[in-house]
Amino acid sequence: MAEQSQPPAKKNQDIKAALWLSVQLAWDLGWLIAIPVVALGFAGAYADKHFGTSPLLLLIGFALAATLSTIGVKRKLKKIIEKRF
User: How far is it, in rounded angstroms, from Cα 49 to Cα 8?
Assistant: First the structure.
């Protein structure tokens, strides 16, 4: 038995929904990565200037931001995978 294809209107609606979910995911992941980098980068630079430890605290801030971003992305993707399957 041949598989019946969806009507064109339904296919277009599915494509638009998938595209919107992709854009939303990219936006969410962008913020999950950008906010910790900016916040901890500025905090590290300020602390370096205050304590005279340049660039030690800036690098620690970036390392902490990378760790937090990785945890956030993993949680987000885990939630998406659980919802999808």
Answer: 61
